[in-house]
Design goal:
197 residues; alpha+beta; Cathepsin D, subunit A, domain 1; 2 domains; seven-stranded mixed β-sheet; four-stranded antiparallel β-sheet; 5 helices; 11 strands; elongated
């Protein structure tokens, strides 16, 4: 038995003595004391289970919320309104050469970025110009330049938009500043991102 295990054993015995003496001094019947002890064990077990599966519960809650909540993007004439997601980011469905992909709107990204899978599904070929190094929040990565024929966000359409493609993006696509700066204006109002062509 290690020193830490011995200390844990001593603390456990001390706690049992304190709880047991408190129960004996109140003259609580053993059956009632056992019920209370089992109730507290169940409460701690449920709490520990919730804590252990907190990420799964969060994902499940986000999925349920997405089913019952209003739409994430609304077109009002030429203006596009995108609601903030439960993760605190603005996500929008974007059509790339007719293929719909999910994008994170990121004003910290200089250029729109496609995952390799999204580029393949959208028929976007890398190799427009020389490869480039991009500094991201996760460090510097190599990316290939490309151009998409059409990029459509709601009612907003852009042709021949420059993009980068990188494996390091994983499955995340990013709508960057080269798109946002092509708009007449964009702003954040409460939980809504407003895009005006």
């Amino acid at each position: 038995m290690s020193e830490f295990q011995a200390m844990d054993l001593i603390w456990g015995v001390v706690m049992l003595v304190i709880v047991g003496s408190a129960l004996l001094s109140r003259r609580i019947p053993i059956g009632q004391a056992a019920k209370m002890a089992l109730a507290w064990i169940a409460i701690f077990a449920v709490g520990l289970t919730i804590y252990a599966y907190r990420n799964e519960f969060k994902m499940m809650g986000a999925r349920v919320w997405s089913e019952i909540s209003p739409p994430e993007a609304i077109s009002e004439g030429d203006t596009m309104r995108i609601r903030k997601s439960s993760d605190g980011h603005f996500w929008v469905d974007v059509s790339i050469n007719g293929n719909s992909e999910r994008f994170l709107v990121d004003s910290g990204a200089s250029i729109t970025g496609l995952s390799v899978g999204a580029a393949q599904r959208s028929g976007v070929e890398a190799g427009f110009g020389y490869p480039m190094i991009i500094n991201t929040a996760n460090g510097a990565i190599d990316a290939d330049r490309a151009t998409v024929d059409t990029l459509v966000v709601g009612t907003i359409r852009r042709n021949d938009m420059g993009v980068v493609i990188a494996e390091e993006f994983g499955g995340t696509n990013v709508l960057g500043m080269n798109f946002l700066s092509s708009l007449s204006s964009w702003s954040v109002e409460g939980d809504w991102l407003i895009l005006r062509p």
